[in-house]
Write a structure and sequence with these properties.
The chain is about 40% helix and about 20% strand. It is of the alpha/beta class and about 160 residues long.
């Protein structure tokens, strides 16, 4: 299974690239993590935010690989403990399909994206900066994998 993290925004700070890459390279081929960046719309003084969000949503959905399970990262989604995430990862890995994790831009996701998702996942009730979400997501996926494989990284 390939995990495709499809996120709005590019030109991330170096620490984001380094953090994401560190955990992505630790994941084995059975659940390889790949980042697909989708350009964010320009948000100027008189920006048409609904139009920008629609455009970002179209780009997010267009980047989803055919047949992939779609999970949208959404503050109103379901929260999982690390152990519950490990169970979800196991289910996704055994599905025979790739996984597409969608992260919206600064104004969030449209209903179109939420409706296209099989699941809505909330990383936290806290408001997190989008760059940090990438690193946090990669680390938690690695931790979940380590639980499934009895790797010593996770010591619950």
């Amino acid at each position: 299974m390939q995990i495709h993290l499809i996120a709005v925004g590019d030109k991330m700070p170096r620490w984001v690239q380094d953090g994401f890459s560190e955990y992505a390279k630790r994941l084995p081929a059975e659940c390889a993590l790949r980042l697909i960046e989708v350009a964010a719309g320009r948000r100027g003084k008189n920006a048409d935010i609904p139009r920008i969000m629609r455009d970002e949503s179209e780009r997010l959905l267009a980047a989803v690989p055919r047949g992939a399970i779609v999970v949208a990262l959404e503050v109103g989604g379901t929260s999982w403990s690390t152990e519950q995430l490990a169970g979800q990862l196991d289910t996704w890995m055994n599905s025979g399909h790739d996984l597409a994790l969608l992260v919206g831009g600064p104004d969030g996701l449209t209903d179109e994206v939420r409706n296209a998702a099989r699941q809505l996942w909330s990383l936290s009730a806290l408001t997190l900066p989008h760059p940090l979400v990438r690193v946090l997501l990669a680390e938690q996926l690695y931790r979940a994998w380590s639980i499934l494989r009895n790797h010593p990284y996770h010591r619950a």
